[in-house]
Amino acid sequence: MSNRPMKMDLGRGMKRVAAFVRLGVMMIVVSLVLVFGFWAMPAVAQDNTVDYTLTNQAGADFSGKNLSGTSFAAADARDANFEGADMSGTILTKATFIRTNLKGTDFTKTFADRVLFDGSDLTNAIFVDAIATSSSFGDTIITGADFSDAIIDRFQIKKMCKRADGVNPITGISTRESLGCRD
To answer: How far is CA 35 from CA 71, 108, 126, 130, in A?
Structure first.
């Protein structure tokens, strides 16, 4: 046996730890998508089965449409109209909803990670049980919107609380309460 001290390769060890952490985060995200997106969805036929992934829907009119269960992943829907649309259970990953009319839209159980909602009107929208991590809500109108049990970055919540007011006419929950704003 040698009396030489063992060298420890900290760089490789830290890389392994980082890889395990990334794997763990990915597993949590996939689990949440499965729980919120599939398990809780009723087994009914969808009215609209069109896949809008990676499409340009800028300026399109989806007002009042049943888009439940569809995908707008990485779609460009800037300046579009979704007023009163049912977008529950949709996948919006990396979509662009800049300056979009989303008044009264139902986003219940929607997976909306890394979405740009900047400058949009979310008056009376419902984001109950939605996942909106790393999404941006800069300069959005959120009067009467319900974000109950939604997963949103703390930084965004803090900014949204500065302009949160109103009560959602469907759920009866105040915007400030749904965001967990401190008075």
So the answer is: 17, 13, 19, 11
